[in-house]
Design a protein that fits this description.
Distance between the termini: 32 Å
Number of strands: 5
Largest sheet: 5 strands, mixed
Order of helices and strands: HEEHEHEHHHEHHHHHHH
């Protein structure tokens, strides 16, 4: 599995990166492709090495958009470099509703925890009235160049919806959006397996199975988000425009900038 992951063209070969990959190379409906080296998605950046920082500063990655909650950031702050601008805008829905932050889960809460309901509810809520994705759009439109990396803890849920937004705005099909999302099952595998191994020393099998489900990548998750969008807005274009100001004209501006 490791050889497959290392050879995947979307992955940046960072020593301390988690699921850090380039949206470049994805094909959109009119046949153009997303440019390489401009739009990245990732897990937390707390493990970056000096070599990684040197690589990212030469890309150059100008903006880091961190979707994690405050307590996640405090526990594992990003490693940053002088040339980048750091933007912290949590993407989770209100914590009393549902949250991709798993820090608070313990044996007691896990006993009553339904992972399937949790994940589907999370994905149904993330696309709407989300200040983090509004910030993402503003960075996409910001003049002056420089690549963007959007990230959460593992680069799967909060980042998955943010990446879907980017691809849809650039004219990608739903199939392409799903393919990019499902690729995380492969690119996250080493981190996920190592984390589950560590958790297995403290959690019983029943609790570990729930964590394994939450860390999984399933088409039903992204489908829940897409279905919620079309239920509320009828079309994805309506959602892009009414939630995030991405009118047809603005989307054309983004395509001129990020497609080739």
């Amino acid at each position: 599995m490791s050889a497959t992951i290392l050879l995947h063209p979307s992955l940046a070969l960072l020593q301390g990166g988690v699921n850090f990959r380039d949206l470049g190379g994805n094909t959109v409906a009119d046949g153009r492709r997303v440019k390489h080296g401009w739009l990245y998605r990732s897990g937390a950046l707390d493990g970056l090495t000096e070599q990684d920082i040197g690589y990212l500063s030469k890309v150059p990655v100008k903006h880091v958009l961190d979707y994690r909650d405050e307590e996640e950031v405090e526990a594992q702050p990003d490693v940053l470099w002088n040339e980048c601008e750091y933007h912290h805008v949590p993407a989770n829905p209100p914590s009393d509703e549902v949250s991709a932050n798993l820090v608070g889960l313990n044996l007691e809460t896990l006993s009553e925890f339904d992972p399937q309901t949790f994940m589907l509810d999370l994905y149904r809520r993330l696309p709407f009235n989300n200040q983090a994705y509004k910030k993402l759009v503003s960075l996409l439109l910001q003049p002056g160049g420089g690549a963007i990396v959007q990230h959460c803890a593992v680069g799967k849920d909060r980042t998955g919806i943010g990446s879907a937004l980017v691809l849809l705005a650039l004219g990608a099909s739903i199939d392409t959006v799903k393919e990019d999302y499902l690729l995380t099952d492969t690119t996250l595998a080493p981190f996920r397996e190592a984390l589950l191994d560590r958790l297995s020393t403290n959690l019983p099998p029943s609790a570990l199975k729930k964590f394994e489900y939450v860390l999984s990548v399933r088409e039903s998750f992204i489908d829940a988000a897409l279905e919620a969008i079309t239920e509320q807005y009828d079309t994805l274009d309506n959602w892009l425009e009414k939630e995030y100001g991405l009118t047809a004209e603005v989307r054309e501006e983004l395509r001129a900038r990020y497609l080739e």
